[in-house]
Amino acid sequence: MSKWHLPPDRFFDPDPAQRRVARRLYDTVADLPLICPHGHVDPRLLADEEATFGSPAELFIIPDHYVFRMLYSQGVPLAALGVPAGSGEPDHRKIWQTFAEHFYLFRGTPTGIWLAQELRDVFGIEEKLTGATAQAIYDELEEKLARPEFRPRALFARFRVEVLCTTDFATDTLEHHRAIRRSGWDGDVRPTFRPDDVIHLLRPGWRERIKRLGELTGIEVTSYRTFIRALEARRAFFREMGALATDSDGTVLTTLELSESEADGIIRRALRGRATEADAARFFGHMLLELARMSIEDGLVMQVHFGSFRNHNQPLFDRFGPDMGCDIPFRAEFTRNLRPLLNKYGNDPRLTLVVYTLDESTYTRELAPLAGHYPALKLGGPWWFHDSLNGMRRYFDRVIETAGLYNTVGFNDDTRAFPSIPARHDVWRRAGCNWLAGLVVRGVVDEEDATEMAFDLAYGLAKRTFLAKRQAIRVGKRRF
Amino acid sequence: MSKWHLPPDRFFDPDPAQRRVARRLYDTVADLPLICPHGHVDPRLLADEEATFGSPAELFIIPDHYVFRMLYSQGVPLAALGVPAGSGEPDHRKIWQTFAEHFYLFRGTPTGIWLAQELRDVFGIEEKLTGATAQAIYDELEEKLARPEFRPRALFARFRVEVLCTTDFATDTLEHHRAIRRSGWDGDVRPTFRPDDVIHLLRPGWRERIKRLGELTGIEVTSYRTFIRALEARRAFFREMGALATDSDGTVLTTLELSESEADGIIRRALRGRATEADAARFFGHMLLELARMSIEDGLVMQVHFGSFRNHNQPLFDRFGPDMGCDIPFRAEFTRNLRPLLNKYGNDPRLTLVVYTLDESTYTRELAPLAGHYPALKLGGPWWFHDSLNGMRRYFDRVIETAGLYNTVGFNDDTRAFPSIPARHDVWRRAGCNWLAGLVVRGVVDEEDATEMAFDLAYGLAKRTFLAKRQAIRVGKRRF
Amino acid sequence: MSKWHLPPDRFFDPDPAQRRVARRLYDTVADLPLICPHGHVDPRLLADEEATFGSPAELFIIPDHYVFRMLYSQGVPLAALGVPAGSGEPDHRKIWQTFAEHFYLFRGTPTGIWLAQELRDVFGIEEKLTGATAQAIYDELEEKLARPEFRPRALFARFRVEVLCTTDFATDTLEHHRAIRRSGWDGDVRPTFRPDDVIHLLRPGWRERIKRLGELTGIEVTSYRTFIRALEARRAFFREMGALATDSDGTVLTTLELSESEADGIIRRALRGRATEADAARFFGHMLLELARMSIEDGLVMQVHFGSFRNHNQPLFDRFGPDMGCDIPFRAEFTRNLRPLLNKYGNDPRLTLVVYTLDESTYTRELAPLAGHYPALKLGGPWWFHDSLNGMRRYFDRVIETAGLYNTVGFNDDTRAFPSIPARHDVWRRAGCNWLAGLVVRGVVDEEDATEMAFDLAYGLAKRTFLAKRQAIRVGKRRF
């Protein structure tokens, strides 16, 4: 039986000179704490000391559309994988067996790397997962998942997570975050304010959510003014609950400024169920400016990500709903579309606007030049499909020469798969150190600078952006 | 006089560790048979045992727009190269001399690599082609081309071509394919069904071809129904003649579904010579859905390639016609444009839809995520201008992490230059093994997996996609 | 105190085999003369033997929007950097201190590389620039800048500049160029004809400039005919003053041919202050064809660059004017947009049309295939944001396989920072030799070819394109 192939110098270039430098740099950052600025871990897992991950299939397969999409693409029915949760194949051992027999599909993919590293380093599984080893590995995982040291809170500590930010809608009650705070546990878990649920006027259920927003804030939304006031009240609540940032998602990116009367007219139409697609698009573009204004006022970092066609596979969406692995990127444009926002607020250093993209052709052409000019704009790390060795390499190669390292914000795992978090950060740290080692052996930077840059990539940039805008950062003896 | 520079470890990275692994992997695949899923070799060459390639200029220069476009771009008149065939310079030695004097233009290009490898490995020419060596090399080539062992059928066997698929219009009679079959020769040559000639309503001569389609099938085309029936009849004939796949080309990609009455209205207008550009575009978009439906029914693999502005150079087209080296790519969009087709048929694992692109910005952004989700969709190999060392490297780096290797289909040489086929596949195999060796020395996959992946890239993926959808594959002792 | 990290083999790959070849190639080109086909050096600096560069802040910071934009992006106010010239912080030592304290922002950027190389190799500063070393370095620079051997003309000779072409509007008087010629100095400084000032009908002040054009040429512009005649007269004057080329810039690229009556109607409307945006766009597209025609007639090389949104930051532009580091690229399209021009003049080998782009996604998709076909079209070097190690690597990797090396034109520094010129060319030469060495060790070209290609990249291509279209080139013993 073969063992996992995870050599200690993995992901470094084979050239011995570069590898030596990469290793030295990596040794300085490998054990730094993890900052997770926004992601999708269910806070319920951490709200209760006794919470567990469930079966191996529930942990690794059923909720993870990165994983099951690949088997689906090769003709494995979703039902055979127990997807969506609670339907399909009831025998989790069978699901695991199917997964194991198709594990070769993940060769050369980031998912394959994360899974191997999780299984070996988190769960101590040394054998490669195949059809032949599937059941023995299931046994071992099942036994370990029942132990206290494999509960979410235990892993949180073991992973050295310094802060974990979830993603929460404006109308979320944050009850699990409350429970975490009340429990006296010292893990730092925070919400992120994602007002998509109330800002996208045509999303199903919008009026019910607006009503709920009124109940939660005590401000009945009947006009643009009351909408803004309710939103600001909700932000204030999120800040009280520890939020560091907001996050917004939109299919089509435009930013524009409406007059108050136009905005008021649109929201009143929406409240009567009469908003048009054009209304919704214009309102969203306007609200991005408003979110920037609010961020200047309350200090929350503003994050936006654009350019994914959600639920592209309509028949699958009709049967199973969202998050079935078929959100597909398309072309993005930032130079013209961000201009109204940047012209209004981009020169204000109190604003930190972090932009993520799925369209890498915008790295050199639009985002790096913009981030290399506007004081407010920072470029988010390689995101989603680009959270991979080659995605990171392209990011470093295309972004830094024009934007500079210090207009980026480090890494964001953005994951719902909690036990994969250390593997994801480890890939980023290794990729970053290898990139820097490449600069050192080519004489672009010296190792002294590279060592500082490695720290910044692994920890400092995220820390400064989200947690410590105006203070010095200390980790052990280092000061940032 | 200098010799060709074709070292045995060419195209591998210089790092000794990576090179050793690349060599080991390459040794396992270098001699595998060649699968050529669609290309433009003239079947006439193989229909007659006595057929020859003609003069060196007729073999290497006159028919190959890859070659003559480069000299043209540097101011060499097409007439000096005997282009188009049968016109211009009558002295093939003079053409060869001009070519040789400009051979330095191909430095660092795939054409330069293929030509060097062909001349050395197929024809035994050791000296580099220059103005000084041109005539001696011409002598040697002329002498060899006259020998039986350099006839097309002899090379077919020597090259270990397992199957060669040509490209043939719906109204082609496949007479040369018939002749090949009747001749008793054991070479496996098959047609590919390319119905562009009858589906693009505004291409010159469409009505004559529709009449011809009626004659060939015995189904007079007077309506949408009869058009579809005639097309299906023609597909059945191609299948009888061994076809494995279809191929479609279009400038603008859209897919959409028409009602039968709208489709019928369009084709009736076209039959009266009254179809508009919008009609033709909508009809083509609709026919892509119909071709998918037919492929589900008859099992032919469906191939599409989009995004080339054909005959961009109008004055040249007006004088000399098509294929003058001026088909120029432009921007492509798949996420929105393929959606109607994928929503209707993309979840059906009986369909294999292979998409080729000339717009590499769509690799990570659109095609890899789509291929990594829809069971029917596969991503074709790096095509046309990207059939090159860097094109392949970019393909591996951008596609596999998201799509996985098993949503790709291996290599397609797509060439009309028959003697270049082994060189093209060899470049692919070397590039693939070097990429895999890079993964091995970086600890992304182990050598056991890489060895299987090398086989898949070189042979297995193409074999399974086009020839053996549901059977096991054996090559020598290996089983796939 | 740390020293600059500029090892002799910098920018070469770490692999010892590749590095040895790169070094050998580099040694053959490192000292070749510099050809600067168009840039923005102020000719006043060279018009007077006694001219100096001013203070270190005036040389390195205040006029260079590459430099100050990076500090601005991190919240440093422009006023603290004395920007725009003559305003803000009056103490140049304080400006220098601020710059030095933020010098870490340039880690891994081309600006950082150029500055390090300038400071060490031009000015003999061995220590890295930091807050701690800032004042001592200022002292040393100030002292050196006062010496005769650091005056512009002395550096011109020391840098081995063979020819330096500036960029000058059609209505410029070229008085400094005249002064250079009259002075008897042997430096070869030439103007480049950039008629943007009179061709873009809606740019502020257009009517005044048209009047000026009439005065300068003695041809009053009252119609399309007189406009063309005045423009031709001005070109003739630039040619007398030594111009080798024209240059055109436009936000939106279209090329099209107007009838003379339409062109005449547009210009008459413009003269009455009534031209529309559509008029201006169509007129500019038409004038690109006219510029091509004129280039065929008078032999000036035609350069165009497109795709930058000038002065993106409106509030900054309103306060400070242009060139504040906020020209931001956006998507470009060449296949369709250049077609009218290429169809009319692209087959004429007397025309040399050099296209530069900021949208790298057009390299493989559009520009390389176009340059690999049309005799008139050449692809300019990696430009502006892409004048960097990775920008050059991407250029070589994406362009040459399809276009061939000989449809490119070498390097253009395009800078206003005169003392950075040798560093910029040195980066290009090192990057080029390293790329070629990569081809050699991979067996793509042999070292004999690579040596010629290195010469061509460093010198020959630019020489032939701009200076010696029809003659042989000799440098020392080499002949091109």
- How would you sum up the major sheet of chain A? 4 strands, parallel
Strands of chain A, count? 13
Number of H/I helices of chain A: 20
What sort of overall outline of chain A do the alpha carbons produce when their principal axes are compared? globular
Task: Give the full name of the CATH homologous superfamily of the largest domain in chain A.
Answer: Metal-dependent hydrolases
How large is the share of residues in beta strands of chain A? 5-15%
For this entry, give a set of tags.
20 helices; TIM Barrel; 13 strands; 480 residues; alpha/beta; 9% strand; homotrimer; uronate isomerase, domain 2, chain A; 2 domains; 3-stranded parallel sheet
List the topology elements.
3 copies of one chain form a homotrimer.
Chain A: H1 16-29, E1 34-36, H2 44-47, H3 56-60, H4 65-73, H5 92-101, H6 110-122, H7 134-145, H8 152-158, E2 161-165, E3 168-169, H9 175-182, E4 189-190, E5 193-194, H10 196-199, H11 206-217, H12 224-240, E6 245-250, H13 260-271, H14 277-298, E7 301-306, E8 308-309, H15 314-320, E9 328-329, H16 339-345, E10 353-357, H17 361-371, E11 377-379, H18 389-403, H19 421-441, H20 447-467, E12 474-475, E13 478-479
Parallel strand pairs in A: 1-2, 2-4, 3-5, 6-7, 7-10, 10-11
Antiparallel strand pairs in A: 8-9, 12-13
